[in-house]
Specification:
4-stranded antiparallel beta sheet, 8 helices, about 10% helix, globular
Amino acid sequence: MTIERKLHLNRVGGASLVNSPPVFSHDGKLLFCTCGPTVKIFSTNTGKCVQRLISLKGDITGVVLHPRNKLQVITSTCQGELTVWDYEDGISLQSINVSWNISNIASHPNISDYILICTGEKRSGVLRKVWIDSFSGAKTRTEEVATRVSMTMPCPIGFLKSGEQIVYIKKGDKICVMDMERSVEANVGRKDGKITCFACNPIEDYIATGHVTGRINFWYNLGSGADTRHQSALMSSNHWHSHPVSDVAFTPGGSSLLSVGSEGVLVEWHYKRGDDRNFLPRLSASCRHVVTSNDGSMWVVTHIDNSISIATNQYQVKHSIHGLSAVDICDRPSDLTFYYDHRTKSCITTGKTGHLMFYDPNADQELYSVDITHENCLGQLQSKEKLYSEITRVCTQVSEDSDSSWMATVEVSKMEKLNNASRMKLWVLDKDDKWWKLNTVINDAHKSEITRLCFRPTNSDTDQSYLVSAGADGLVKLWGMVTKGGSSHWSCTATASYRKLPAVHCDFSQDGSVLAVAFRHTVCLLDPLTLDITRVLLSNDRSNPVEKLVLGKFSCQHMIIIVSEKSMQAFDLLKGSVSWVVDLHISHIAVDYMSEFMFAVSDVNDLYVIKPTCAEPLYTHRQLTENNVFSIFAIPYSDSDRWLKDDCSDIPWLARSKLYVTDSSLSVFTLSVSDNMQNILPSIGGSQDSRFMNPIAHILEKSANVSTGRGNLSELAAHGADVSSTVKAITDSPAHILPSVTEYCARFLTSFLSNLKVQEAPVSCSNAPVIENQAVAGDSSKLSPNSDCLILESVTAKSPQSGQMDFLHGL
């Protein structure tokens, strides 16, 4: 059966949080971070995302505070779109389009007439003014200010004092100060190297520049026409960083300077007191940007591992915000990119160095991170020399029937001029502490690279957990729990090999009764407890080794999909023969754990949805992304995705799970019926600050706390089958655009009756209605006044949760 319905690929998460510097709100309670086509707004008190600004005109390249309104921000996109947003309500107010690609944007609170944009790409750009009045519907008015502006700076535009003078860097070694009357250039000596960043003092006439040599220079009186030919404007020079300075920023009072680099240390320079300085060490990774709040009480540092640290001016990290890590993508094994975890209904990938991240793609956020290697993070340059342990394999226990949940990891220590040492670790989830604890460490489990790890699925018959590891040394090992001396640990219980060929991949059947192992171009079926070979299958493409193999699920449990470099073939274990062969190079393949369908991506980024028993794909999507596909995985729908599940109920392979695709930039995409990203992103109303809620949301929040003891609106909405979408529409809509109560009240009440139907026999208000357990459309326009009374009575009688009606009476 081929699906003719067209689906759309929408970007719903991932991307980089640190491409441009974050921006504090005026009161310092919110932090604006660009992330692909969205601006994520984080609360500095909780570190949670409380709002999203979604652009439909390309990736957002910068965000600034509106110089005329403290409750608005202005964003720029790579497509030349400038938009004014009401960030509390998350709606766009005004937009204009210029004729150039915008790479950076800047504003100053004392300049209310215009904002500055940098247009151009690569290293050199053009600086232009855009008048604020252009947003009110008047003709777009721009003016060119400067050319050959260095675009390699974290913030290529700066302002001196009251904002009347503009500062930028030209050709990497010239500081340019410009106002309406004159332009001054200060040549930087070659001994300090090129400028990597700069900052302007908000109070005095100071400019600080960071250099590739790690030196920081302070310049004075540049904006007053000083004689810069003999560097008389150079006031002082400081040096602590051993690598290029990534970014610098003055505190609001201008008394000190903050600097960061690849050392992962924030340095505060009290430059007026000589070489006096303080440090905030041991940050998560090499630093990229540093920003201060308007009152100077908080500092924000971004890192190259796509994380953000919110620290206080007392040198304490308050919150850490983590996105999908984008460091050393090309060095990671493809099997570790995104691994599905059945227990948390999330995926596992590498986070910061030596850590595993449990990432929830439905909410686009990190659930938690586990330190696997327990090693200190070295600087960026040292890490490139492989002086650390790298996680190469990970797997978790598939079944939830077992009393214990296990996770296995493999890490390899890569050091120059030394042999690589590997360690396989078994972790158990402590039910009391709700955290992973190390149980067993096995050094050099295989003589060479471990190519695959997989747990045997457990069932009600067997509670014993088993782990299988396949290695390039040609061995397949079965690991089980052994009790000795009152303690339990993992030990090898059986081994197997086939003609000394390397074992490249393995997989268990859904019930755990069959283990399939690929030895180069041969696939062997083994007994899962003894590892005895029971059957040998020869690949149709014997000239190329097997790259991946996957066993079918549910009605396709008897099928094996084998992928080699030039073909994909299906074996029928019941017939003992090849069912079909397709000459196609598949780079990624994933299974839907809730159905019998599989997803395959070719080397040209074409997606195929297949059922192992049929050679013809059910659905084909050409050219998923412009970048290379990094990974694909399917995640079962969560409670907040019920409305999306209903939209895809007629598509069998999207009825139970949601398909995600990630590309080389670690942007996360999903296939959906809607072509609007705003319609498929999950609601974040439950985590919003109270000041972001409208009056209806406040009533629901208060009622939920009283009746259920919980303050999560999504949990309250889950009481009804279709009520979640109605609650989402009411609570997420700004107060000033909500319709009248008469328009949405009836629809809101009838949403609780999605599974009820009144019989066609005529009834009256005095008679009790007859209810059938059948679905009906909740259209309030078709209900008579009498039926409204009956519906309210039936809801009260039908619903076992008293909290459902408590807050309705409050309305």
